[in-house]
Design a protein that fits this description.
Helix content is 52%, strand content 11%. The chain is built from 13 helices and 4 strands.
């Protein structure tokens, strides 16, 4: 296996970090890798906010659901969908001020996510560890306020970054046959679904039940299998509806619905 594929297949999230700082030259090197990510129209409609200040990371702690990595890792990187910069350039060149709609937000979100993965791969290749935080989008409104994001800038993805102080197992993944379709989408029969999720059912259940706090929540809601853990304990409909409202409110406040959704 070539080194790039070996690194990709050995990825694991780091949830404990050493206090050692990331050298500035190393940080610059991995951030530069993000610039090489594919980008719609080569517009690079994203920005990266690097937060090292402990006081600011303490402010980010609550909107990131009080996950310890935000405080323990020396850096937190927030990748934002960003058309603010480009709109300033358009204004200076007497061009129409476009990119204030939902499609533009989606384009910028894809750009930001692609850049984040380039930075993540570069960081791991240099011996750093990281943990992606889904809370970035869920709490984008509050995070935008803390990080002073101007109009047309929305935090969409982020991760804690530093030297890992643990080496956890490589997490299970669905089999290739379960996610790859040939030529057109081939829908699943009941037996197909059982095969696709067989390993996940076992490994995922064990992982969550080994976490005391999560196990307590699982037992409280009476979840009997992994599917019920996902929908009754971790990702409830109510929580996702609330997160959706938060994201839509943030898009409105940041100017992405100026001419309708």
């Amino acid at each position: 296996m070539n080194p790039v594929l070996e690194q990709i297949h050995s990825h694991r999230s780091a949830r404990k970090f050493k206090s050692d700082p990331v050298p500035p030259e190393l940080l610059e090197r991995i951030l530069a890798a993000g610039l090489r990510a594919s980008s719609s129209g080569n517009m690079q409609s994203y920005s990266v906010i690097v937060t090292s200040d402990p006081a600011l990371r303490r402010e980010l702690y609550a909107p990131h659901f009080e996950q310890s990595m935000v405080l323990e890792a020396p850096l937190f990187l927030t990748f934002c969908a960003d058309f603010h910069r480009m709109r300033l350039w358009l204004a200076q060149n007497e061009a129409p001020l476009n990119f204030d709609n939902f499609m533009s937000f989606m384009i910028a979100t894809i750009d930001a996510t692609l850049a984040s993965q380039n930075v993540a791969l570069a960081a791991e290749s240099e011996g750093l560890g990281l943990c992606y935080m889904g809370t970035t989008l869920a709490s984008c409104r509050e995070i935008a306020r803390i990080l002073r994001c101007p109009s047309h800038v929305v935090p969409v993805v982020g991760f804690a970054l530093g030297y890992a102080d643990e080496s956890g197992p490589v997490r299970d993944r669905l089999p290739l046959s379960g996610v790859v379709h040939r030529e057109t989408y081939s829908d699943y029969a009941a037996g197909d679904i059982e095969a696709v999720y067989r390993e996940r059912e076992t490994a995922g259940w064990k992982r969550y039940m080994d976490m005391p706090d999560l196990r307590s929540s699982i037992e409280k809601v009476g979840a009997k299998n992994l599917a019920q853990i996902y929908t009754k304990a971790k990702y409830t409909r109510e929580s996702h509806v609330e997160y959706s409202r938060n994201v839509l409110a943030c898009l409105t406040e940041q100017g992405f619905f100026e001419h309708g959704p």
